[in-house]
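The protein record filed here:
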Amino acid sequence: MHIAIAGNIGSGKTTLTRLLARHYGWEPHYESVDFNPYLSDFYNDMNRWSFNLQVYFLKERLKDILSFQSSGKDIIQDRTIYEDAKIFAPNLFRQGNMNTRDFETYSDLFDQMQNLIKYPDLTIYLKTTVPTLVAQIQKRGREYENSMRIDYLQGLHELYEEWIENYGGRILVIDADICKFEDNPTDFEDVVRQIDQTISLLKDQR
């Protein structure tokens, strides 16, 4: 089974991935941020490095998915390939940080990749408002995120809301403004209960 955690920057994806991997015994796969060769440059000059960064993420995500599909393991993944293609790249294009030529090349590359992949069995979307994201980004204190603009986060937020409305796979939405699964055991138990119910339905349909 392939479970994915989706959500904006600072929504709590990595934390929930870790907690659920421990609870269920799933194998966790985290987003490569500490080892990404473009991320720091990107936050300092989005226009120059946006295409490089997005292609790097796309390459890494495809490699992971192909590995998941052949592993036979229960996997939980921090962020999906669809977020890269449907949210992050379009946001850069809309805000003028990726030119038309690069965006069209990137979009065509993803379209070709879709022939090789399928949706996760379940995607858990952490729905958050921008003030919550800002507070959590400041709390974790990653140096390369210090220059991130509010309008960049807001653009991502709007695209996430559009994406979820039209998502083609099975989705579970968690209101991460209210549900404090990291600090409140009752909230985490509620997340687990919802996941258990969804997984039970999935198994019944197989």
